């Protein structure tokens, strides 16, 4: 099951399949699409798994084992890649909250987001090669964008599984948070990204033209929120 929580501009999508360590089955893909439909209009999007053991443990092998033809395998890959593409193209800032291990397809799901926040005791790896397959949900290409071609090939080609600290060192994880305050810490970061003009900054960073970037700044400059914040800053400086 996939849950959607909406709170003051922040959408939180949670995969809750404890019996399968939050693995993704065909039904999960449909539910993720429905949750993303419901998240439209949010200023920031979080994707996470339920509990503290698994973010997403990959594809649900018990259900995906029914796929025995190339056509069926390709259709499944395109289906889930489409979900990841929707997350990657979400207008607001997207955040993967790595509450637990992110392995195989789970790592691919994580890198479809803009930012990855990890609990200090998680592990992450593109270990599909252990099953003699490869990433199929767009994760290999996105991994190259994040860590560079040679490092991405080494990680996915060997199936190396990294600790949170190792993943942060290579840039795969953006910030490691203490487990005992993890829930409070990721929510505080996500709320900041939802309540500030991070979405406009994202659009500029993604390749807006000079005119688009300047226009975005000008819209923010004349907003009530800007002048309220500016007044507070000027009062503090007195």
UniProtKB/TrEMBL annotation:
The record's section on InterPro entries has: ClpP/crotonase-like_dom_sf (IPR029045), Enoyl-CoA_hyd/isom_CS (IPR018376), Enoyl-CoA_hydra/iso (IPR001753)
- Gene3D superfamilies for the chain: 2-enoyl-CoA Hydratase, Chain A, domain 1
Keyword Cytoplasm part of the UniProt annotation: no
Which reaction(s) does the protein catalyse, per the Swiss-Prot or TrEMBL entry?
a 4-saturated-(3S)-3-hydroxyacyl-CoA = a (3E)-enoyl-CoA + H2O; a (3S)-3-hydroxyacyl-CoA = a (2E)-enoyl-CoA + H2O
Where do transmembrane segments lie in this chain?
none
Sorted alphabetically, the keyword list is: Fatty acid metabolism, Lipid metabolism
Molecular function in Gene Ontology: enoyl-CoA hydratase activity
- Tell me the Pfam families matching this sequence: ECH_1
Q: Does the keyword Transcription apply?
A: no
Its GO biological process annotations read: fatty acid beta-oxidation
Protein role: Could possibly oxidize fatty acids using specific components.
Q: Which family does it belong to?
A: Belongs to the enoyl-CoA hydratase/isomerase family.
Kindly provide the name given to this protein in its UniProt entry: Enoyl-CoA hydratase
């Amino acid at each position: 099951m996939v849950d959607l929580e909406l709170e003051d501009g922040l959408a939180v999508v949670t995969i809750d399949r404890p019996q399968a360590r939050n693995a993704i089955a065909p039904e999960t893909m449909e539910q993720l699409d429905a949750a993303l439909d419901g998240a439209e209009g949010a200023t920031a999007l979080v994707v996470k798994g339920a509990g503290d053991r698994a973010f997403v443990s990959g594809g649900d092998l018990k259900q995906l084992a029914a796929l025995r033809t190339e056509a069926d395998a390709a259709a499944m890959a395109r289906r889930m890649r489409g979900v990841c593409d929707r997350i990657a193209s979400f207008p607001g800032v997207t955040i993967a909250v790595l509450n637990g291990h992110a392995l195989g397809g789970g790592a691919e799901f994580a890198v479809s987001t803009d930012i990855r926040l990890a609990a200090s005791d998680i592990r992450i790896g593109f270990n599909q090669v252990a099953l003699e397959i490869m990433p199929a949900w767009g994760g290999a290409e996105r991994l190259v964008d994040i860590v560079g071609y040679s490092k991405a090939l080494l990680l996915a080609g060997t199936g190396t599984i990294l600790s949170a600290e190792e993943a942060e060192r290579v840039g795969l994880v953006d910030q490691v948070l203490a487990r005992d305050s993890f829930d409070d810490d990721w929510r505080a970061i996500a709320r900041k990204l939802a309540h500030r003009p991070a979405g406009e900054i994202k659009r500029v960073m993604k390749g807006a033209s000079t005119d688009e970037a300047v226009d975005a700044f000008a819209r923010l400059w004349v907003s009530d929120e800007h002048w309220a914040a500016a007044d507070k800053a000027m009062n503090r400086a007195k």
